[in-house]
Amino acid sequence: MSRRQVVGVAGEIAVGERKLVFVDGRSIVLFNLDGTIYALDNACPHNGAALASGQLEGCLLRCPAHGLRFDVRSGAMAGAGGLSVTTFAVAIVDSKLVVSLDQPGAPLSQARPCGAAT
Questions:
Q1: What is the pTM of this model?
Q2: Residue 103 CB neighbours (<10 A)
Q3: Residues 6+ apart with CB under 8 A from 55
Q4: Containing H/E element for 29?
Q5: Rieske domain location, by residue (predicted)?
Q6: Which residues have CB under 8 Å from 72's CB, separation 6+?
Q7: Positive or negative torsion for Cα 2, 76, 74, 28
Q8: pLDDT tens across 18-35, in order?
Q9: pLDDT tens, residue by residue, 46-57
């Protein structure tokens, strides 16, 4: 059984903005980076702090509790190794934003380094 949930409509999250949603008992933050929507678990893997209010620096999200930075596109902590935040695939289906919980943490498309030119 597919675990996909409609969480909004295409175009409702402006570039650089975010939206907090609740899906299947999980708190998930959606981010619009340069027109692409990414979804992350709202809990920092270090100590569970809510990431939704963290400062966004390009594609890096800073945890408001301890300052750890995570790449919104991959969930990986900035730098070598370290912790990572669970990510979720997002699709636009019939003009709706759909988050898939089928494979949390599944690798997303190859992301460029944060701040790299397109």
A1: 0.85
A2: 11
A3: 61, 62, 64
A4: strand 26-33
A5: 4-99
A6: 31, 33, 38, 40, 56, 59, 60, 61
A7: positive
A8: 999 998 889 999 999 999
A9: 888 999 999 999
